[in-house]
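User: Can you fold this complex?
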Amino acid sequence: MVSEPIAPQAVSEGAFQVAPDDHLDLPLRQPRKSLAPYILLAPVVVVLLLALGYPLVRQFIMSFQEFGLGQQLGTEPPAWVGLDNYKTLVTDPAIWTIIGRSLLFCFVNAASTMVIGIAIAVLLTKVHKAVRFTLTTALLFAWAMPVIAAMTVWEWLFDTEYGIVNWGLSKLGFDFIGHSWLIEPLSFFFVATVIIVWMSVPFVVFSVYSALTQVSEEVLEAAELDGAGGWQRFVNIIMPTIAPVIAVVTVLQVIWDLRVFTQIYYLQGAGGLASKTDLLGTFIYRMGISQSNYGVASAVAIFVLILTLVITSGYVRTLFKEAE
Amino acid sequence: MIRRSVFNTLGVILAVVWIFPVYWMVNTAFLPQSKSRTSNPTFVPFGGDLSAFRRVLTPSFWNSMQLSLSVTLLVVVVALVFAFLSALAVSRFRFGGRKTFVLVILIVQMIPAEALFISQYKMLQGWSLLNSIAGLSLVYVAAVLPFTVWMLRGFVDGVPAELEQAAQIDGCSRIGAFFRVTFPLLAPGLVASGVYAFLQAWNEFTLATVVMSPSNKTLPLWLRGLAVQTNQATDWPAVMAGAVLVALPVVIFFMFVQGRMTQGLVSGAVKG
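Assistant: Here's the predicted assembly.
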């Protein structure tokens, strides 16, 4: 119903197409054909186009190019290689190892985080007020820790020589004196999982707990009077109320754990073997920034981007519907 | 009830597990170096001192502090102003392309830094902005804008436009009505969004690693450098003192916005 002329800055940016069927659900509050909203949007649009839009296009282009020695020396423009980088992505077993490893790592971390987080949220509804306060305070502190500060603490906890973890396990009778946790890839990923779960659980707990408090007491009581057991009440009343929150939080955990970079990069620097512990994020970094192999790195990055957008599409749709 | 006391015990154990790393950081930060390097750990820093803090408050810390403060301040101010204008447009105007804009903001919010940092690196290299405050701030502002726009839009939506219209009927101009009526009601939203931008810029590690060089470190890069020293044994009390210094402002600010951030992320999933 709105048939305003498109603001000039909006046309050139392409992001704005006038949707002829754009419904008006609120009365117009400004004179028609106003430029005001476009002027208000311009700064954000310009920044996003400059710092995200342009790199996105450029990365897409780079994923069809090859960057050899000639380009590193700046003497030759990058060569077009068509789908070669994507062919590498599909056929190189080393890259598939990393993709498989990342997916497995993501699954283990997201699943552990969700299970522990939901369990703690349910526990919070069943404990004494003082215990609830203590536990939520502890979780809040863990959540507030800046990621690098937390990483240094965990490195210190798992320190080979003087770490408290080795000390504690040795006191319990296991031989952990001088044990290095980061040399073995499996042990490396175990430590990474402990850290990531520790960092991620608080958000899950707070989200799920706040959903649990929305479950109606009256309905629960009525169900009990009608003879519904604890499990039946959980499945038929509590689950439907908290399911949407769990769905959203799961999607967020999956995309956060899929692209994990900081923790892996940090632990590699603290003693892990990069070649055996790379996940997608660190692999793109090593390929692109360290080895200047921008072509393949861009192809892998585009793969991660598309995977993320597919996983989050449902969540985006829900948020969008809610906004309109 | 036995069940209840089992739950309570479990709750306390979990609280101890989650707080332990934080406690261990603070504890170690107050120990002299000799007490951290023994096979018998010290659990309470009696007889501890501030020597670790003294060792860590070096010129390189202050340089990083200055860099982090400049970048963070720039990001907070720019992101807040820009996002606020967009939130106004989206919330108070109907115009062609409005839905597209909201959708793009939501999609962009999902893009991981790891999926774009290669080309952002190339871009900043081309503009000679690698290793600069301007370059790092640009990618940071772009990273925080989608969520701040989204968050502020929610706040502006929460202030009924009728309030402004009433003020206009009483003789205010449209802009006057906005600044006298709506703006004061938006203060909590601006604070929450500002703190969010602050936390992001202050804690960020991935893009800082890509954009900055070893000579020019933000605080997270500086802290990592302190812990990962290859040529000598790590001075853990000093590293923990550094971690306390980096974490302290964050923990304080975080307590303010925690509730709002949870809400922002899961809004749309539950009504309420």
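Confidence is low (pLDDT under 50) at residues 268-272 of chain B. Residues 12 and 18 of chain B are 10 Å apart (CA to CA).
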